[in-house]
Specification:
single chain, 240 residues, alpha/beta, 7-stranded mixed sheet, 7 strands, demethylmenaquinone methyltransferase activity, menaquinone biosynthesis, methyltransferase, SAM-dependent_MTases_sf, UbiE/COQ5_MeTrFase
Amino acid sequence: MAVVPYKDQNDDKKSQVATMFNNIADKYDFLNHFLSAGIDIIWRKKAVSLLAPEKPKQVLDIATGTADFAIETLRLNPDKIVGVDISEGMLAVGREKLIKKGLTNKIELKYGDSENLPFGDNTFDAITVAFGVRNFENLKKGLSEMNRVLKPGGTAVVLEFSKPRSFPMKQLYQFYFKNILPVVGKIVSKDNAAYTYLPESVQAFPDGKDFISIFEEVGFKNTKWHSLTFGISSIYTGKK
């Protein structure tokens, strides 16, 4: 059974995830940086640096949220970045951010379903997704869509939470994720489920070698797995 934010509702995972992010959109950036002590910013910079040798000109950022990853990717000097997300609330926050930073000519944000991307085959030089694949209703379908819209020779970069496996980080991580993060997240976001769903979805996600196997199954080649911060998160790369 798929892990969903609102267990008392009958909506599918995709609908529930969209509702959840709509509910927490105005607090999302603050909680992201606060609950990770800013390490998420370092992770994004590392993920973008892996794309630097490719010099991509057309970039797609899936599950773009409030556009933090898309904005970081501007360091690569692409011609255009398109960010897609299923949460209109997150996109609204992202659009305000782009207007304030004067970046609307470089980054376009639009509603888009990761499992049914509104783009033709072989469109983008690079695809990025940060902390989004864990929320896909159908992981294989979402990754297959990424492969479809990527140009031959293009690169996909996936940044996602993973599970530390070594003592004492494993124990510290589990305590923080299960006891501290949900309480703080609930108080700040006012959403009872959002930050309970986060550790549950991380626990259920096929990380590490398991993710690489699925990545390759849908057609990605030259795959690599980079473990970050004692295994708390990982970056996966693959080529079409």
